[in-house]
Amino acid sequence: MSNVVQYARQGRTGVITVDYPPVNALGLDVRTGLLQALEAALADAEADVLVLAAAGRTFMAGADIREFGKPSQPPILPDVIARFDASPKPIVAAIHGTALGGGLELALACHFRVALRSARLGLPEVKLGLLPGSGGTQRLPRLIGAVKALDMIISGDPVSAAAALEMGIIDALDDGDSALDAALRFAQRVRDESLPAIPVRERTERIAGTDPALFAEVRAGLAKRAPQLFSPHRCVDAVEAAVTLPFEDGLKRERELFLACMDSPQRAGLIHAFFAEREAAKVPGLPAGTPLRPVRTVAVIGAGTMGGGIAMCFANAGIPVLLLEVKQEALDKGVAGVRRNYEATAKKGKLTAAEVEARMGLIRPTLDYADLKDADLVIEAVFENMAIKKQIFATLDRVCKPGAILATNTSTLDIDEIATATRRPQDVVGMHFFSPANVMKLLENVRGAKTADDVAATVMEVGKRIGKVSVLVGVCYGFVGNRMLHQRGREAVALVDEGASPQQVDKVLTDFGFPMGQFAMGDLAGIDVGWRIREERRKAGDPDAPEPNWVDKLAEQGRFGQKTGAGIYRYEPGSRTPLPDPEVEALIAAYRAGKGIAPRAVPDHEILERCLYVMVNEGARILEEGIAARALDVDVVWIYGYGFPAYRGGPMFWADRIGLKTVYEAVKRFHETLGGTQWEPAPLLERLAREGKRFGDL
Known about the structure:
Elements: E1 5-10, E2 13-18, H1 28-43, E3 49-54, H2 77-85, E4 91-95, E5 98-100, H3 102-108, E6 112-116, E7 120-122, H4 136-144, H5 146-155, E8 159-160, H6 161-167, E9 172-174, H7 179-192, H8 213-225, H9 231-244, H10 247-263, H11 265-280, E10 298-301, H12 305-316, E11 321-324, H13 328-347, H14 353-362, E12 363-366, E13 377-380, H15 386-399, E14 405-408, H16 415-419, E15 428-433, E16 442-446, H17 453-465, E17 469-473, H18 481-498, H19 502-512, H20 518-525, H21 527-539, H22 550-556, H23 582-595, H24 604-625, H25 631-642, H26 651-658, H27 660-674, H28 683-691
Parallel strand pairs: 2-3, 3-4, 4-6, 5-7, 6-9, 10-11, 10-13, 11-12, 13-14, 14-15, 16-17
Antiparallel strand pairs: 1-2, 7-8, 15-16
Helix pairs in contact: 1-2, 2-3, 4-5, 4-9, 5-9, 8-9, 9-10, 11-25, 12-13, 13-14, 18-24, 19-24, 24-27, 27-28
């Protein structure tokens, strides 16, 4: 018998138990052990019902990530599942923790499924550029119907055990704390009530009569919201096969589609993004087990859009938070904005009225800095002005208790300079949230020259607690994300100067896979933000600060973007759809004329190369300077903070796939034809291109 899968009998119930920490992944040893244990169970004449259970904190959580990228070794999972599916003895799956991917597919091959109320079930393969390839697309529709199966498989999102019961995925929900005990009780019901043990493959009532138009509808929806993605469209094909083909033929079709996804270049990008997110949490040079400072209460300074959103992040995680403003009117407006956000979520059915009030109750508004004296973590979230931020930090230095972490949400300013306003620079750190803070997943934590190890470790852990993807970076202008974004923005503006339209530039970027283009994103964030940053840089004499341009002229006119109904685009009342504006076209034409620029037709491929290669070149400098420790950190920042398409793996991974020699030669060409420090090839890019290496090799 395998050392990771055991068989034992309890009374007349045979129990197969997987024990392969930490998540009982379905690696080779587990697959082999499952077959051996099943054979032992079937040969045990004293056992008339079987239970499939898992030890530890979770049921089986899918494929073993240690086998990713390696050739499959028999027995492969579909064959293991087929043996369970064909069992002449009824099998009850005992689900706790999570049943994901192949783990859920194995449970679907059992005759019955019992889950603890705390369990979650899902098929997340689409998030890795795949589809469930071990019968999940064929069995799930037979249990819950094609509509709900498509929703689960295409989204990849797990559902609660209660939802799974209502949908028909599981047969019983248990409020106890032992899935095995719950399954043993259900096994007794199978005997006592002679429950029919019908294999899922034979259940067709939920798919009979499915309207063929459903699949055309879903494909049309995907064509609008995810036209570039490969695997979601194959998921539709697979579920359609479940409805239109006999079970065995459907399995063959699923396998063909699964292998097509395996061959897709998108899979490589999504797998990279999957691993990069997890690796980003492991900070080089920060020892594992670094002590953490307790963070039980938090304070946020500034109740504007950003500050209110940050406060919501903590309230959502059940952490009490003080929200400070200097004027009652601003405080009332901020609190009202938070309530509106929560109530909008409640209207969508994602929160109950009681949950709204509970979260609002965790946010305590105040006008008095003295109320911050017991806060464990204080996050400053006022607008980008160094003098104001230093004034705030000097105040915090006076009022906050020893050991409190003092964080700034600055997106560009020098954290080391901010820290000089205190007598405790070791406690000062950057926590750069992305707008809207209660929605965006990225938290760019910024370690100053004197930031203590335990402070850096604590803000990384806090990010995890509030559901963020955290990356630790160093101090420079714009850190990682905005430093690269400003180079892309500069190039986008230059392309319009030369003859492109803002909508052409944006379309090239959205066709590449970004959720919105450079200019639409500027309008969403507010073009006054970048304008004020550029003004500060010019006042400070920054030699790299760009000259005033037509975007600055729009900001000077009060056209700040969506919040004013007009920016680079115009917006109809109540709409967020960017519309071209003749006034902006005229302003751009006048700007070109004033600069003596004769507009030219700019090809799309040039727009793409200039917008992306300038980012890659800047990313190479960031790596060379040690601002980001690894290329994967840059990729994570861009995927989760700026919408870089995850299926392309992030800018540095994408550049590796293109070939750094190709990127370097283009950067060199643009430097020769366009000039500008942004196009000076980064020494690291040049070296890697010359050596035939990748950023991923660093």
